[in-house]
Amino acid sequence: MKGAITYLNFDGQTREAMTFYQQCLGGELMIPEFPGAPCAPGFEGRTMYAALMKGGVPFLAASDTPPGMPLHVGNHASVSVECESMEEIRRIFAALAEGGEVKMPLADMFWGAHWGFLKDRYGVQWMFNYTLSA
User: Fold this and answer.
1) Distance (Å, rounded) from C-alpha 119 to C-alpha 73?
2) Fewer CB atoms inside 10 Å of the end CB: C or N, the chain?
3) How far apart are CA 110 and CA 122, in angstroms?
């Protein structure tokens, strides 16, 4: 495993919140644009991904919740795990999903990664990402 970071969710306030956290914590704020990415109705103007970086490595990440997934206490933070191989992402995902709830099964995503999301048996939310080779 390459590492894990805290991932926060907001209801349309990601840019504002991450700017505030940058002022408090330092680091470089990265908010990439995703031209041509599919955008669900109602997601316009929301932030798909933001990260505070130090030395080119993210230490805090965030995004706005998509339409149909309202924000409430309990779904505002996740552990985001960056995996080193397809085998590793599948193994860890399956282990943490046991007795939990898969929210989005592992699948290839438009940003060039294999990704999935689950809530474990203790209610902790986990996101998994494995960057696919070009």
Assistant:
1) 14
2) C
3) 30
